[in-house]
Amino acid sequence: MEIKHLRSPQTEDILPDHWYNIVPDLPEPLPPMKKPNGEDVKPEELIAIFPKKLIEQEFSTERFIKIPDELLSLYLELGRPTPLFRARRLEEFLDTPARIYYKYEGVLPTGSHKINTAIAQAYFNMLEGTKRLTTETGAGQWGSALALAGALFGLKVRVYMVRASYDQKPYRRILMQIYGAEVIPSPSPYTKSGREILERDPNHPGSLGIAISEAIEDAVTNPGTKYSLGSVLNHVLLHQTIIGLEAIKQFELIGEELPDIVIGCVGGGSNFAGLAYPFYYEEIVRGKKKSVKIIAVEPKAVPSMTRGIYTYDYGDTARLTPMLKMYTVGHRYTPPPIHAGGLRYHGVAPTLALLVKNNIVKPVAYHQTEVFRAAQLFAQMEGIVPAPESAHAVKAVIDEAIRAREEREKKVIIFNLSGHGLLDLAGYQEYLENRLRDYEPEKIDLSYLNTY
């Protein structure tokens, strides 16, 4: 068997020294954040929750933004650049002419891509004198990443963890606590928004929208505290583009052509954007391969892109955030307790929504049973157990590889294996024991969004 290019080089010079900002390259201007009265949100109005440098990045229209030297050194210490693998055994099993590559972020200390923005956010907060950070987390990848970042920069961290995931994934919670973070199941009695929900439903499973509300309320009511977000906003997606920028260099080093198909899973959009946005720039904006197919994969249980509407909505349940124009199933939507906790968000990043609206990104949705089935096959072929979130991308990859076989086309496919699933084995156990449930809403009420 030919073994050439099973794994790309990982030398330090692959690490980019700038992040890529997609905003100036979008097909149309990005709709501004809005207040409930319809006025645009001004940058200075976000100072209560974010440090100035992150606000500057959020509203920036510069294409490339310099990564500080201290962060570059820390990226290297934490394990960047991450490997690019070719999934030859999976190719052979599927009998496909497609060449399948994956960027593997699970080698990083907390097991996922989330550390890429966590250390950036903690760093800029530390520079401006922040003492404490609050945040939300779904499956726990983001919470554990921010917990580690807080430890590295001497910041206290409180994580509001969606209750369904808090119960399903105790080891994620323990990991956060090892790094020194305080972990609170959400909805909680610690905030007004949490107490109101518990009064209506003491057994509420929680949602990312609720956890965001609690984290923001905590931040704005406690001096010296700022809020950190794991996805959706521009500055978060910006930091993640280090993934795709590395992958482009690695493709060049192994002599591979730019991919025909780019795939990532989507909760809010950070790991998807991290891989896909730099390829969008290289292939579509710079015109190197305009026929590229970009696929965003979501769960059928929370079908924001495939069944939601493109409109202004709040980023959280209690309506504490500005309104963002995005695909959404509504901030009142209660996501079912699927094991892909990081994909249980009611909306998506505004930049991603704009790409979907313009038919540049194709959204697809799957049930969790078929996703776990694909993940098991990938583990048996490649040895890596994907996180349930990343497993959604794996399912789409398999479908595209089979399509390439049927159409006899030698497609090049890349996807972001954004994290490992070694702390998600309870979900795999339910799948292996045939206890895993599929969820898909029969009807999604979005009528109330018309009032905003």
TrEMBL record:
<dbReference type="GO" id="GO:0030170">
    <property type="term" value="F:pyridoxal phosphate binding"/>
</dbReference>
<comment type="function">
    <text>The beta subunit is responsible for the synthesis of L-tryptophan from indole and L-serine.</text>
</comment>
<dbReference type="Pfam" id="PF00291">
    <property type="entry name" value="PALP"/>
</dbReference>
<feature type="domain" description="Tryptophan synthase beta chain-like PALP">
    <location>
        <begin position="78"/>
        <end position="419"/>
    </location>
</feature>
<dbReference type="InterPro" id="IPR036052">
    <property type="entry name" value="TrpB-like_PALP_sf"/>
</dbReference>
<feature type="modified residue" description="N6-(pyridoxal phosphate)lysine">
    <location>
        <position position="114"/>
    </location>
</feature>
<keyword id="KW-0663">Pyridoxal phosphate</keyword>
<dbReference type="InterPro" id="IPR006654">
    <property type="entry name" value="Trp_synth_beta"/>
</dbReference>
<keyword id="KW-0057">Aromatic amino acid biosynthesis</keyword>
<dbReference type="InterPro" id="IPR006316">
    <property type="entry name" value="Trp_synth_b-like"/>
</dbReference>
<keyword id="KW-0822">Tryptophan biosynthesis</keyword>
<dbReference type="GO" id="GO:0005737">
    <property type="term" value="C:cytoplasm"/>
</dbReference>
<dbReference type="InterPro" id="IPR023026">
    <property type="entry name" value="Trp_synth_beta/beta-like"/>
</dbReference>
<dbReference type="GO" id="GO:0052684">
    <property type="term" value="F:L-serine hydro-lyase (adding indole, L-tryptophan-forming) activity"/>
</dbReference>
<comment type="similarity">
    <text>Belongs to the TrpB family.</text>
</comment>
<dbReference type="GO" id="GO:0004834">
    <property type="term" value="F:tryptophan synthase activity"/>
</dbReference>
<dbReference type="InterPro" id="IPR006653">
    <property type="entry name" value="Trp_synth_b_CS"/>
</dbReference>
<dbReference type="InterPro" id="IPR001926">
    <property type="entry name" value="TrpB-like_PALP"/>
</dbReference>
<keyword id="KW-0456">Lyase</keyword>
<protein>
    <recommendedName>
        <fullName>Tryptophan synthase beta chain</fullName>
        <ecNumber>4.2.1.20</ecNumber>
    </recommendedName>
</protein>
<comment type="subunit">
    <text>Tetramer of two alpha and two beta chains.</text>
</comment>
<comment type="pathway">
    <text>Amino-acid biosynthesis; L-tryptophan biosynthesis; L-tryptophan from chorismate: step 5/5.</text>
</comment>
<keyword id="KW-0028">Amino-acid biosynthesis</keyword>
